[in-house]
Amino acid sequence: THAAGAQQLHGTGALRVATAAACMAAGTALVLRLGELITERGLGNGPALLLFAQMAAVLPGQLWSLHEARSGLFLAFALTVLAVATTVAVAAVVTLRRAERRIPVQYAKRMIGRRAYGGTSTYIPIGINRAGFTPLACAALLLWLPAAAARLWPGAGWLRALASTPGQSGPGYLAAVFALGVLFAFYVNVVAGVRPDEIAEKALRQGAFVPGIRPGGPTAEYIGYVHARLAFS
User: Fold this and answer.
1) How far is the CA of 11 from the CAs of 4, 145, 181, in angstroms?
2) How is the chain split into domains, by residue range?
3) pTM
4) 3-state secondary structure 115-155
5) What was the pLDDT predicted at 2?
6) Would you call 16 exposed, middle or buried from its count of C-beta atoms within 10 A (0-12, 13-18, 19+)?
7) Across the chain, what does the average pLDDT equal?
8) Are 115 and 214 in contact (CB under 8 A)?
9) How far apart are the first and last CA of the chain?
10) What is the pLDDT of residues 119-141, one digit of tens each?
């Protein structure tokens, strides 16, 4: 096989494949733990910083290759377009990550002795893009698995047929990534995201309510409705 790293895998036996899988799993666990430590120490979003470090490590080599292949006005134009696209992408990502829908919440007044407590107003923040880049990464990984399996077991005809998909620049591949990304984003944002029942129950215990919405079940339904609308926006 001519895949990346193929010179390290000289056979497709069970022991070699198991060893390679164990090494990949150990490396993945180490990277995930490193990302968690970066986040816990307050240095930023660990996975995002690791991804940025990978991109920063590859970018100089790509720019040098472009410099060797092209020169003059084309190189200056390409660098300008790259800088503008990077700035726009970073601004869009930061805006989406910080954007949130604020559901107003008001606390009921309580009389303790001769003093009144409560009556303050706050809000429940619901992020618009809680999933980040995870859905697209999972979609690309899922589409890459058949090709990797076909290289490991070249005798399986159904794997070769499954792996014979258009390239990463083809419309079929991009459509598949988009569809899988939407499914993963729906799962992360709706299924594994905000828990409306817990939020409504906690608000009920603390004497808080959403103006115009009855406490308890109706509040949970309203929060779930808003969350679902944001997930599909």
Assistant:
1) 15, 19, 34
2) 1-44, 53-98
3) 0.54
4) EEECCCEEEEEEECCCCCCHHHHHHHHHHHHHHHHHHHCCC
5) 47
6) middle
7) 75
8) no
9) 43
10) 688 888 887 776 666 777 777 77
